[in-house]
Amino acid sequence: MATRLSEESPNARRVFYFGPFALDLSLRRLFRQGVPVHVTGKALDLLCALVSNAGVTLSVDEIMSTVWDDKKDLTDATLRQHVLMLRHALGENRTQRYIATDYGHGYRFTADVTERPSPFINSVVNEYCVAGAEFRNSASPAALVASLNLYDRALAIDPTSAKALAGAALTRVLVADFQYDRPRNQLELAKSQSENALAADPNCVDALMASCKVQIDYCWDFAGALAIARRALELDATDRIAAFMYGWILALSNRFSESLAFTESLPSHVSNMNIIQACRGITTLFSGDYAAAAAQLEATCKRWPDYWFARTFLGLALLLLGEPDRALEHFDGVRLSAYDPLVDRQMNARYFAEGYALYTRFRMGDTKTAQSTLERLARLAESQFVPATCFALAEIGRKNGEAALRYIEVCGDNRECWYTHLRVEPLVKELDLDPARLYGRPGSPS
């Protein structure tokens, strides 16, 4: 038998589903297929009371004593008016009714109510998630915002959906990785959403990959991130992101031979992907074999001419080989590139290229051009996030170690992914940074 006027804790997260609607009691919001439905405060209180006691007739006195604390000027007409408002909000018609009037007694909510989404609701959530993933693959700033909006719609319908939580977390990781926003903020949200997704589905690969990036770039837990990537590969050995992350974490941990052996062991249809080929070249670069790295990355860039990630590190390899002019051609090509909507799954490396170009120009003595770029970045920072990475590399380039260290500290506070590279980043070796101190600073997450 249903309990009248539920006494559930106000802090308990409860969501009721009926038809195309979701009523979130904790958020005090009504959604229809993920779109918020405007309902006045008292009408929403009335709906919560009726839905919480679906199938039970609530008397007029019960409703009035629960919904209206202030009894002044309260009449039966007030209640009837709010019932009509609810009928309108729910779109009642001759074939679809939600609220029944039991004349002489009160009102009863007649629709089937569950605390788990129906197959129809699941299908709508899935549609939002599929569309969210498509936008995420485009990877432009606007596409990632659209992706998050779609996942938010899905979560408005079903806040426990592992697929929607994981998709939102993975999208936030990309926003952080591409530095479209301050990474720390996005990684903190991704951490919460990926944890909730894994609580709902421990085998959700997207949630594992989002958690992996959180562990390495937010928590600086290299061993923990590697274990998560391994778990994702156990679930799906062909997942391109999981394969990249496993090899990438090994490389960032100075385990270069292990990283190369791992990428060589991958099935050909995985190892031949651009992201894996780039990982191999960059691992070779970080290991100190600049000539071999340049050859590998040049081959990758010939095969994928618009792959900014590989082209940026090809420029770095050429710089380390003593070819700054050729390096600048690649850095400038990336940093000045426009977003191409025809390029799928692009990795944005423009800010990396900005920083490396600044370093190169200062080392070449082109101070005027470098200083002009810094001024442009400073103006840009007034309206959007600009990574401290750019300024740190510029200061290293002009051999101002004290200023570089200050910017590097800001990189850490921002949780910029370049900061995670510092134990293998060749351009910071002259600063003689201590990785144990970098990743174990007071205030860093455990």
Task: State the gist of this model.
Among the domains are: 15-109, Winged helix-like DNA-binding domain superfamily/Winged helix DNA-binding domain (Arc Repressor Mutant, subunit A), CATH 1.10.10.10; 117-220, Alpha Horseshoe (Serine Threonine Protein Phosphatase 5, Tetratricopeptide repeat), CATH 1.25.40; 356-446, no CATH class. The chain contains 22 helices and seven strands.
Task: Provide the descriptors you would attach to this structure in a database record.
single chain, 446 residues, mainly alpha, Arc Repressor Mutant, subunit A, Serine Threonine Protein Phosphatase 5, Tetratricopeptide repeat, 4-stranded antiparallel beta sheet, 3-stranded antiparallel beta sheet, 22 helices, 7 strands, elongated, disordered N terminus
Model description:
With 446 residues, the protein is mainly α. Among the domains are: 15-109, Arc Repressor Mutant, subunit A, CATH 1.10.10.10; 117-220, Alpha Horseshoe (Serine Threonine Protein Phosphatase 5, Tetratricopeptide repeat); 356-446, no CATH class. It is 62% helix and 6% strand. It is built from 22 helices and 7 strands. The strands form 2 sheets. A 4-stranded antiparallel beta sheet has the order 1-2-3-4, with helices on both faces. The protein has a 3-stranded antiparallel beta sheet with strand order 5-7-6. Helix 8 runs parallel beside helix 10 (240-252). The two termini are 48 Å apart.
